[in-house]
What does this fold into?
Amino acid sequence: SNNQDRYESIFQNKMLFLLKILHDTTGASFTLYVYEYAGKYSITDVPDKWKSEFEENSEWLKFGYHGICPAISYLDENISIDDFKNSYQTVENSIIFFAGHKSLSNILRLSYFSGTDDIIDYLSKSGIKVLLTADDTRLNYNLNFEENNLINQDEILQKGDLTYVKTDIRYENTPDIEQALVNNSGEPIIV
It folds into this structure.
């Protein structure tokens, strides 16, 4: 970790500090979705220095698998189910190492909202309960056209053991997250 020697608290990180303020002022909970690799960084490099602090905040701050790396879509035919399983297990084990088991989310948002039937079946068998779908009308995961239309209309869909839920706000697409949360504050759940 770049800041292992500088940070005594996870909230010295600017983004985590902002999320803590938002949690404290609005009661919002957050899940951070992580890649196995991003550029020169690997999730396996995150130290357990702040594990107890992550565990103390795990009721509102969770981590979940997002993908192997930013450039890979799970509709890519070069990605095997074994590649996915290995990456998923590496990330899950890393999260447990640095943040504790209570910090694992059973709600996921895979990169590009994509995943084959094999991948989705594996996630379901691994304890994932919810998949977040796109905040636009693109096809999601293993949903067919009709199911995708239903998720866009009803914002929730049960398929097998998984619940698919439409995303309301994506942090990376929202210039003012505080204002977006205020604008949606009448909603019981903002995804």
User: Anything to note?
Assistant: The mean pLDDT is 88. Residues 81-99 form the longest helix (19 residues). The longest strand covers residues 61-67.
